[in-house]
Every structure is written in structure tokens, then in C-alpha cells.
Amino acid sequence: MTSLAPIDSFWAVVPAGGAGTRLWPLSRAGAPKFLHDLRGSGRTLIQETHDRLGPLAPGRVLVVTGAAHRDAVAGQLDTLAPEAILAEPSARDSMAAIGLAAALIERADPDAVMGSFAADHVITDVEGFAGAVRTSVEVAREGWLVTLGVEPTFPSSAFGYIRSGEPLAEHPGAARVSQFVEKPSVEVARGYLAEGGYRWNAGMFVARPTVLLDLLADTDPGFAADLRALAADGSRMDEIWPRLPRIAVDHAVAEPAAAAGRVATVPAAFDWEDVGDFDSLAALLGADGVPMTVLGDADVRVVDASGLVVAGGRTVAVVGLDDVVVVDTPDALLVTTRERAQDVKAVVAALKESGRADLT
Fold first, then answer.
1. Low-confidence residues in the chain, pLDDT < 50
2. Which of 27, 56, 163, 304 is the most exposed place for a label (fewest CB within 10 A)?
3. How far is 23 from 27, CA to CA, in rounded Å?
4. 171: nearest Cα among 215, 135, 128
5. What are the tens digits of pLDDT across the range 183-208?
6. CA-to-CA distance for 340 and 181, rounded, in angstroms?
7. pLDDT averaged over the chain?
8. 3-state secondary structure the chain
9. Spatial strand order in the sheet of 324-328
């Protein structure tokens, strides 16, 4: 059996939300980053996510996305049955999205184990990913909530961290999670890497649906009951959905469950990239010895310059600028530096405040 063989009773859930404001003007509220091909591979991020998960969970992939994006997702994932795309009437954060999928799977397959994997992550080692998922499912069958921990490659302040505790003797490499740590400063993150035992929290969770919902019920029984009521009667969506709390699965379930000793982590021995801004996109796409990275088919002319150009059709010329970011779209042009890439979200906030929702 290869690592890509189907996993019995394994269901894959793909939350597809967020606007990717730090990738503006490429990513917009109406066309988030998961709908874009950010690697020049010919496949969008959500298509690549489905490509990884489909062989492991054939016929058992659910996508949870906003109602505004349902048609676009269905167009890109045209092999999915219509009922496999769950449309949220409004954004309620990840607990509501993942919890609704868990409640539906709980009713459909009593033996199920589900895994939640974001639609916008870049993972090119498909076999390494599949192997980590397979191990996580084995651990989750025993009642654990499992998170895949990504090996840190630098002291990032952009990610939360998982602190590993006692190893699980029956599952080599897996360990109990002693603590989830919020996004630290670079200095604190540097200490984590020096100490060892810390991994990035990439938000990839695996559990039996009943375990996930029962853990939620431990802290918010009404929330869990509402999700199960929705799964039992979808016609109550307009009644129930607006009252669901806006909270991430990390805060609603993972952190309190870790404090209660109910969470395990499995090492993710594969390259992983969140592509959170244009600096990380430039690093992902950059090739040794090539100073300027170009994404797109437009004519780009470079003279003594380096960085990233995302071109939308017009000829773009960059002269004498180092580590520049140029993103050219039909209605907006961004020019910044890789160092200031995180600040792009401030532009989006200002546009919204000034009433330019047409640009965001």
C-alpha cells in the first residue's frame, strides 16, 4: 500500500475563506487567494488542495466556503458533487465552518475520522503530506484531537506555535501537546527554536467528528448543539447560523483540549507555506541566481532590479530597484518592497474606510 492509497472512513474538510488582504490587489474579497494560481503551476491553490486530498478520501471531500464564492469553487472543483460544497451565509470564523462539516459527517459515517486542511496552503511534497495524514488518522481513531506540527525553518512571528510534551509510545514521532502558544515576537520565537520541541501551528486538525463536537460541548454546549441541529435540519440555517459564535477552532477547542491533555501532535515532515504576503510569495517562487521573479505571462523588462513582479497583461519595466514588489491588475497597481509587504493590509483598510469596496 502506498501513502496515497485511500484511508478507510477518512473525510477531508477544506475551509475556504478569508480575503487575503496582504496579497491585495491580486487577492480580493470577491476572488480570495485560494482561487488563484500562485505558483504558476496551472492549478489554483484550492485545486492543488483537492489534488492532495482526493486520493486519500475519494468521494469524501467537503468544502466549506462563503455563499459568494460557491459558484467559483464549484467551477474550479467540477468533479465535486453539489452537496459537497457547503455555503456559509456569512463568515463566522473556522469553528462554525469546521463544526458544521463535523456534524454532517457524524451523521453520515459513524466510523469516520475527519481532517481539516485550509484551501490556501502550498504543499508540494504530496507523499510526505499523505504519510503525515495517515499517521494522524491512526492517532485520532483512539480519541485524540490531532494537529500536524510543521517544523519551523526560521523564527517567525507570523505563526502560532505548538509545544510538544510526552511522546506517544505507540505512535513513533507523535507526542502529547502541552501548550498552544500565540504568535510570539521574533526574539521569543528565536528562543523556541533554540530550545527545541516547538512546531508551527498550521491549523491542520484531525479527529473523529464526535470527539471534536464533544470537546466543543465541554466549553460551549449550546454551540455544539446548534451545529448538530443544523446537520439534522438544513432548513434551519437562517435561524441558527447568525447566532453561532465567531471564534477560531484553535481557541474554541484546541487550546482548552490541550490544557485537558486531549491533544496530540504528529510531525509534518514536508515543506509548507502559508503564502501570507508578497514577501513569502517571492521566497516561494524565487530561483537561485534569478534576481527578479515574475508571475504571469506579461512582458516584464528589468534593468538592475530585483524582487517580484505579478503582471496582468501590460508591459512592466522595473529599473534600479532592489527587493521591489510590483503587482499590476486591471484596476489597481501596487508598488512596495518585500520588507514592507505586511503593510499592504493597511491599504485595504484605508480603501474600505473611504468607501472603495469596489477595489477590495
1. none
2. 304
3. 5
4. 135
5. 999 999 999 999 999 999 999 999 99
6. 25
7. 94
8. CCCCCCCCCEEEEEEECCCCHHHCCCCECCECHHHCCCCCCCCCHHHHHHHHHCCCCCCCEEEEEEHHHHHHHHHHCCCCCHHHEEEECCCCCHHHHHHHHHHHHHHHCCCCEEEECCCCCECCCHHHHHHHHHHHHHHHCCCCEEEEEECCCCCCCCCEEEEEEEECCCCCCCEEEEEEECCCCHHHHHHHHHHCCEEEEEEEEEECHHHHHHHHHHHCHHHHHHHHHHHHCHHHHHHHHHHCCCCCHHHHHHHHHHHCCCEEEEEECCCCECCCCHHHHHHHHCCCCCCEEEECCCCEEEECCCEEEECCCCCEEEECCCCEEEEECCCCEEEEECCCHHHHHHHHHHHHHCCCHHHC
9. 292-295, 307-310, 324-328, 333-337
Q: How far apart are CA 20 and CA 348, in angstroms?
A: 10
The three cell numbers locating residue 59 = 468521494
Which residue matches cell numbers 521573479? 293
Other beta carbons within 10 Å of 40: 12
CA 131/CA 119 separation, integer angstroms: 19
> CB neighbours (10 Å) of residue 317?
12
CA distance 135 to 140: 9
How confident is the model over 44-98, as pLDDT tens digits?
999 999 999 999 999 999 999 999 999 999 999 999 999 999 999 999 999 999 9
CB-based contact 250:203 (threshold 8 Å): yes
Residue 351 CA: distances (Å) to CA of 4, 345, 359: 45, 10, 7
Q: What is the dihedral of CA 266, 37, 35, 137, to 10 degrees?
A: -20
Q: How many residues does the chain have?
A: 360
Amino acid at 68: A
- The whole-angstrom separation of Cα 125 and Cα 41 is 14
Please give the C-alpha separations between residue 48 and each of 90, 125, 173, 353, in angstroms, as whole numbers.
25, 11, 27, 34
Residue pair 215/257 in contact (Cβ under 8 Å)? The answer is yes
